[in-house]
Design brief:
Chain B: This is CoA transferase subunit A. Chain B: Keywords: Transferase. The complex is a heterodimer of chains A (283) and B (284). Helix content of chain A is 33%, strand content 19%. Chain A has 283 residues and is an alpha/beta fold. In chain A, a hairpin with a 4-residue loop joins β2 (49-52) and β3. Chain A is globular, with a radius of gyration of 19 Å. Chain B is an alpha/beta fold. In chain B, β6 and β7 form a beta hairpin. The chains are: A alpha/beta (283), B alpha/beta (284). At the A-B interface, α3, α4, β9, α5 and α6 of A face β3, α4, α5 and α8 of B.
């Protein structure tokens, strides 16, 4: 069996945070998260209900990952179609759905940035925007953050622009509103897992082969070590890897979240051509 | 009842420079690309694009310099990444952005529908969105004393929606990705629905209509009207066309991309016809 990659370690860990009966949001452009949900459903959490941002549906139907047919997957066999206003302004605040969110930058309090890198008025990189993360972070106690590259560029001392609020000073105004049970729970990287407390990030687990020293070197914010000791996360089992590689995501769509620039475009093209070939083959 | 059916040229003509355009569809799905291309052809400019999410279709408008202001929570080509024309325009300071979140949009259009100036929301406090959105003030709840941001009402002036099927009155079926199309159509003073096919009055399936005719002013038949974004279940996303867009924007220019787009759409329609005929189109 091929060596275990970082995306596979992340997917398996994230899937362990899903329990049967969970109501989860599958957001925009996050196949790594979708892989984790599907792996949980295939192994230990048979009953998972999805809110699909692509398709705008509530569904219990799943299939293997696809780019071309993602919309079809989310719509066919769905329980209900919803408008985005209904999804975001009614369902999400009422039902506190479980979600994994990927910020471009995050600080030790879980404040996130998905708006700009650099100065807002003259950005180095314009990012997609806050989406619904600002809102979810303000009322949902049931979500986690993840980043696919553990580095000082991503895990920063100060976010360039705070598009969603975690804990600490920035959360004071929300706290005064009486909304205390909120904010991100964990931050999962390709090296380790932090949890958030009011005083900041606490390292609680590391992936196989990682060291605390290495993590400190690549983290732009200070953090404490968990008082209960640091958990060594077990590598994925052969069974988990087989399901992920053969059934859930044979084309490696989840890996797009780890790629940038021309490498990403090439991978996209490869996947799309492969999907087209398979479709023609089945016709 | 009089028919609202007209040509695409006629439908787009009344749109004035500087108006706020509500963009239907979601992410890279069922976006009104044919109407957008007609807008570019007619040389409209200085428009504001308003959408829950904006993507390929609005990136075309920015490439053509038709849009000078965007209002959205998320401007992205989804898994295909950052939209190149938008990114370039922002980095050259050539476009104004009103930073939105899903809640500022959702509550803003609900306030507009109610005819009130704002509605409160449980969001934004502590974030830099409130720093850059200087128009958003805080308000004290008269019942609990809590402080909320007062989300201002938002109203598009014109709206473009692509539908699966519509009748001549504008009643329309959207298929999937309802997004905020219903609200955009209802709030606009002028709404155009383009549809893959226009069907006789009374033949839309009962109880399945998404857009009501009373909210529509013009109806246009356009086959492939949301290509290369999808129109479920008629055709899926054409991801390879989006890859071609990204590549052309890297190595050539927007104008060169636009120049070839019409002929590529023709080949898409031909290919679709063939595959619909041999039954292979939506096979997976």
């Amino acid at each position: 069996m091929a060596a275990i990659s970082k995306d596979e370690m992340m997917v398996c860990y994230m899937s362990s945070l899903i329990q049967t009966g969970d109501f989860v949001v599958q957001g925009m452009g996050t196949p790594l998260v979708f892989s984790a949900f599907l792996l949980a459903k295939e192994t230990h959490a048979r009953e998972v209900q999805f809110m699909y941002t692509v398709g705008n549906t509530i569904s219990e139907h799943t299939e293997s990952l696809s780019i071309t047919y993602l919309e079809q997957l989310t719509v066919e066999g769905c329980l209900k179609k919803v408008k985005m206003t209904e999804m975001h302004c009614d369902i999400v605040p009422s039902l506190k759905v479980k979600e994994f969110i990927r910020p471009a930058q995050v600080d030790r309090f879980g404040n996130c940035n998905n708006v700009v890198i650099g100065d807002y008025a003259k950005p180095v990189i314009r990012l997609p925007g806050a989406g619904g993360i600002t809102d979810v972070a303000a009322f949902n106690p049931n979500f986690h953050l993840y980043v696919t590259r553990h580095s000082r560029q991503t895990l920063v001392d100060q976010v360039d622009f705070c598009s969603s609020v975690g804990y600490g000073e920035r959360a004071e105004e929300l706290n005064r509103m009486g909304i205390r049970a909120r904010g991100p729970q964990k931050l999962i990287t390709d090296s380790c897992v932090f949890r958030f407390e009011n005083e900041g990030a606490v390292l609680e687990a590391i992936f196989h082969g990682e060291t605390i020293e290495n993590i400190r070197e690549n983290t732009g914010f200070p953090f404490d070590l968990s008082e209960n000791g640091i958990i060594q996360i077990e590598p994925p089992s052969e069974e988990q890897l087989r399901i992920l590689r053969e059934k859930i995501d044979p084309l490696g769509i989840r890996q797009l979240e780890l790629l940038t620039g021309i490498q990403r475009i090439q991978k996209l093209e490869h996947i799309l051509l492969e999907e087209d070939k398979r479709r023609r083959g089945s016709a | 009842m009089t028919s609202k059916r007209m040509s695409i040229e006629q439908a787009v003509k009344p749109i004035k420079d500087g108006q706020t355009l509500g963009v239907g569809g979601m992410l890279i799905y069922r976006r009104p690309t044919a109407l957008i291309l007609e807008l570019i052809k007619q040389g409209k400019w200085n428009l504001t694009a308003l959408g829950w999410t904006l993507g390929y279709e609005t990136d075309l408008l920015i490439g053509a310099k038709a849009v000078s202001h965007v209002r959205t929570s998320f401007f992205s080509l989804e898994i295909f990444g950052l939209p190149p024309a938008y990114r370039k325009a922002v980095e050259k300071d050539a476009i104004k952005i009103t930073e939105e979140t899903e809640t500022t949009l959702g509550i803003g259009i609900r306030a507009a529908a109610q005819g009130v100036g704002f509605m409160p929301g449980r969001t934004l406090l502590g974030s830099d969105i409130l720093t850059v959105r200087k128009d958003i003030k805080r308000i004290e709840c008269p019942y609990t004393g809590e402080i909320y941001p007062a989300i201002p009402a938002i109203r598009p002036e014109v709206t473009f929606i692509h539908a699966l099927a519509a009748d001549e009155n504008g009643n329309a079926i959207l298929g999937a990705n309802l997004c905020i199309d219903v609200e955009l159509a209802q709030l606009s003073t002028y709404t155009i629905v383009s549809a893959e096919k226009i069907v006789p009055r009374g033949s839309l399936p009962s109880g399945q209509v998404d857009i009501i005719g009373a909210s529509v002013d013009a109806v246009v038949e356009v086959q492939g009207g949301s290509w290369p974004t999808s129109c479920y279940p008629d055709y899926p996303l054409d991801g390879l066309e989006l890859v071609r867009y990204l590549k052309t924007m890297k190595s050539h220019s927007f104008d060169e991309y636009l120049l070839e787009l019409e002929s590529r759409k023709r080949s898409f329609l031909l290919k679709m016809d063939e595959e619909v005929n041999d039954g292979s189109y939506l096979e997976r």
